[in-house]
Amino acid sequence: MSFDSLGLSEPLLRAVNELGYSSPTPIQLQAIPAVLKGGDLLAGAQTGTGKTAGFTLPILQRLSQLAPVTGGAKRPVRALILTPTRELAAQVEESVRAYGKYLKLRSTVMFGGVGINPQIEALRRGVDIVVATPGRLLDHMQQKTIDVSKLEILVLDEADRMLDMGFIHEIKRVLARLPEKRQNLLFSATFSDEIKALADGLLDSPALIEVARRNTTAETVEQKIHPVDRDRKRELLTHLIRTNNWFQVLVFTRTKHGANRLAEQLGKDGISALAIHGNKSQSARARALTEFKNQTLQVLVATDIAARGIDIDQLPHVVNFDLPKVPEGYVHRIGRTGRAGAEGEAVSLVCVDEHQLLRDIERLIKGPIPHEVIPGFEPDPNAKPEPIQRRSQGRGQAQGRQAPRNGEARPNGEARRNGEPRRDGGRPSGEARPANGNNGGQPARDGRNNGKPAANPGALLGGRRNAERSSNRGR
């Protein structure tokens, strides 16, 4: 089946064809017609399946065909796409511009870490589509530099990650300011019970699409576990890169400190590597991503949050230098490769400390991951596990850890927010804080217990017809 059969207009089909796409992916086959009908949508699809085009194409079509509801000369914001991270926001807005190049629609992207004035100027000139991270969007809302009173379409992209990062309260504040009548689209890489609860509070009789079994990994990704002693992980990684002549390798670490240290060590081994994480400036992160995509950088070492939004066609290798503390993170990580039907390889270097994490991952994906011991790197069978949290900031540091500086490398490897400046100009909204006097042991997450998401996001949000709509009318 081709894109021509989905009801898209000629300008959109021309742009899609110029970008080299001929056949829609399964998520696009189902999502595009559903969005074009104008109803709400709950879509569960693995990352890399083409879900960005699944909502950007029909949104562009609807906005180009429907006259804006406005009483003034300035064009209103008609579509809002919320994403969890800066990189993903930039990537989505780039797709909006690429697909809409032959349409008379304007878009802009807004995220923290960069100056707000150019964003204000873009809004002043008038835009149809805004792609934003929640923190920076709330900055604009508080400063009254954005008017969303005429909004027609809202998208929550990678909603599961938004919950993981603790954005539920920001989302609630945004929803309270939106018009009551709008189309809502919720896209998620994993399709958990928490996502269903969120959908219950947000969506109105949504169409349901799930193109992959819940919390599955792509069949095109070859997964492998290499058991190794904790102190030989870096040596084994260097061996694998050199022996197999790997290039364009995305390596995940659990902490920012670990990412910096590993990139530096790989550089000493003669392997070009850079680290990206929340403590890096936006320009440094963008530069590293550009070099990695252009294949002038051999290895990109990333934390989970910073790697969100990396979209590279046919990325061949993903390495879990550290296993994620949250098993769903494994699905997100290895979803960076094997995208849109391409083949990829996901390798995890697992030491004795991580055996329980590995069991949790295998339970989630409902199957064992093949093990292969590399000759010369056989793990010590008598090695004793060490608690991962005591080691998360690296050896030689005090075990009574201080809270990480901007929330990305929390003990469980997740960030509560994405490090955007807070409205009051004080501590960035992504900065971690010790939980209730526990000296930074388990961080508080907006009232959650032990860093876990709220049990019922839908209840926290409230139904579209009650709390939020009442709040909407009261503004």
Protein described:
This protein has 475 residues and is α/β, with parallel strands linked by helices. The protein folds into 2 domains: 3-214 and 457-473, Rossmann fold; 221-389, Rossmann fold (3-Layer(aba) Sandwich). Helices cover 35% and strands 13% of the residues. The chain has a 7-stranded parallel sheet, with helices on both faces. A 6-stranded parallel sheet has the order 8-13-12-9-11-10, with helices on both faces. Strand 3 (107-110), helix 5 and strand 4 (129-132) form a beta-alpha-beta unit. Helix 3 (51-65) packs across helix 4 and helix 6 runs parallel beside helix 8. The longest helix is centred in the first third of the chain and has 15 residues, at 51-65. The protein is globular. The termini are far apart. Mean pLDDT is 79; it is low at 390-455 and 462-475.
